[in-house]
UniProtKB/TrEMBL annotation:
InterPro entries: NLP_P60_dom, Papain-like_cys_pep_sf, PG_Endopeptidase_C40. SUPFAM superfamilies: Cysteine proteinases. The keyword Transmembrane helix does not apply. It comes from Pseudonocardia alaniniphila. It holds the Pfam family NLPC_P60. This is NlpC/P60 family protein. The lineage of its organism: Bacteria, Bacillati, Actinomycetota, Actinomycetes, Pseudonocardiales. Residues 332-468 form the NlpC/P60 domain. It comes from the Bacteria. Residues 96-144, 262-313 form a coiled coil.
Length: 468
């Protein structure tokens, strides 16, 4: 059975609900009207008539005793008892509100731990990508070194071939050889041209060898630099992995600790709820009021569900079935598209680490034994999907999304602005999208779904982030 007052991000709603209960006071009926002596007299006369009629029709049977006739003092004590139980209902309801507030604090602390772990995961991925790029550059440098070595070998082979051929053929390519070996002026000219060709070939072979040696030296230097960079990036990746592992271990430990605390809070809440139910069931008037209250809550939930369904369907209709990233737009059209994308996901379950620019996705194991195939959004994943529809690519975690746009004061909040929450002295742990009329849409926490709620002020940062 749900409590008469249910904490809903503040105690004001609880107080309003409690004020809906009738306060039964001594000397008054459950509608609050004074009991009159003539009313009591009419009741007594009717009872005596019923008793007398039974005796006249069955004279052989003994007359049953009359029902108890409570005195005015007994009625007064009964009314006082009802009033006392009503006061207990109020005290127990305040305890329930306090327990719900503690539950919200535990959820916020856990969200902060998980955001830290997810941020470490982003750093790890960046470091791994840098290490892989450096490794590719080192591999390319090794290939260039090998090519330079091959070029040196080829140049040296060409020079060796030239020297060997000159030696084996016994050519005298000097001026004296040209004069003594030529047989005619034409032969002298031909030998001079041949001598020039040989000189140029020898010079080209030597230049080629020198260039190959320089290229190899440069390639060796580049390869050493690339290898050093690859080793540095690999070390950074290892450091980032250690940080991510530690962050995830801390998040898992925090999840287990928070689960134990939540279990204790839930047990305490169940005990208070049991006492509240006992106080309610002690008086028929309160039970009737509870039935009317439950019916009101049921109608309210149905209306809320219908409203959310209508808002979700209207947003999906305005999107026209476009699930992928939309073209980059600005102004009111961009804001409308971002809000519609978020509203079209109302009711999708919260999954830590879930969601991207294309829609809900499988998240990160939360350390609480949740199924690994759960698909949904976390708070920053919902923002990724919403803004991707307007051609904007946001960073992954909420604390990074805070720096993704222009800062505006909360007093200047407009639809389409992102609002952020943090605990005192802790990093940002939650982000939501303001949609106007004092409301925001969010993916709140495990066990809940994407929803539209009034803009909370508890933990709200004084600045919002505006993209458009």
């Amino acid at each position: 059975m749900r409590s008469l007052l249910e904490h809903d991000d503040g105690t004001e709603a609880a107080a309003v609900r409690y004020r809906g209960l009738p306060r039964l006071r001594p000397g008054r009926d459950e509608d609050g009207r004074p009991l009159r002596w003539r009313d009591r007299a009419v009741v007594l006369v009717v009872l005596l008539a019923l008793v007398g009629g039974g005796a006249s029709t069955a004279l052989a049977q003994p007359t049953p005793p009359p029902p108890p006739n409570p005195s005015d003092d007994e009625l007064q004590r009964s009314r006082s008892s009802v009033a006392q139980r009503a006061g207990e209902v109020g005290r127990l309801t305040a305890q329930l509100a306090e327990l719900d507030s503690r539950t919200d604090d535990l959820q916020a602390a856990l969200a902060a731990q998980r955001e830290t772990a997810e941020a470490a995961l982003v750093v790890l991925q960046t470091a791994q990508d840098a290490a892989a790029a450096a490794a590719r550059r080192a591999a390319a440098a090794r290939i260039e070194t090998q090519a330079a070595s091959s070029a040196i070998d080829e140049a040296r082979a060409r020079l060796d071939e030239f020297v060997t051929a000159t030696y084996q053929q016994g050519l005298d390519v000097g001026p004296l050889g040209l004069l003594t070996d030529s047989t005619s002026p034409e032969d002298l000219v031909a030998r001079a041209e041949f001598n020039d060709l040989i000189a140029r070939s020898q010079l080209a072979a030597r230049d080629g060898l020198e260039r190959a040696r320089v290229a190899k030296a440069n390639a060796d230097s580049a390869a050493r630099a690339a290898l050093d960079e690859a080793r540095a990036r690999e070390a950074e990746a290892q450091t980032a992995k250690a940080a991510a592992d530690a962050a995830f271990a801390a998040a898992a430990a925090a999840a287990r600790e928070q689960a134990a605390q939540l279990a204790a809070v839930a047990a305490e809440r169940a005990e208070v709820q049991h006492r509240l139910d006992a106080a309610e069931s002690a008086d028929a008037g309160l039970r009737q009021q509870r039935a009317r209250f439950d019916e009101w809550q049921r109608r309210l939930a149905q209306e809320q569900t219908a409203r959310e369904r209508a808002e979700r369907n209207a947003a999906a209709a305005r999107l026209g079935g476009r699930d992928g990233a939309g073209p980059a737009v600005g102004g009111s059209a961009a804001v409308r598209r971002v809000i519609d994308r978020a509203m079209s996901q109302i009711g999708v379950q919260y999954v830590w680490g879930g969601g991207n620019g294309r829609g809900p996705s499988r998240g990160i194991p939360d350390g609480l034994g949740s199924p690994l195939d759960r698909v949904g959004f976390d708070c920053s994943g919902l923002m990724l999907y919403a803004f991707n529809g307007a051609g904007v690519s946001l960073p992954r975690v909420s604390r990074n999304q805070f720096n993704a746009g222009r800062k505006v004061p909360i007093s200047d909040l407009r639809p389409g602005d992102m609002v952020f929450f943090q605990n005192p002295g802790a990093p940002i742990h939650h982000v939501a999208l303001y949609i106007g009329n004092g409301k925001m849409i969010e993916a709140p926490y495990t066990g809940a779904s994407v929803r539209v709620v009034p803009l909370r002020t508890r933990g709200l940062l004084p600045q919002a982030t505006r993209i458009f």
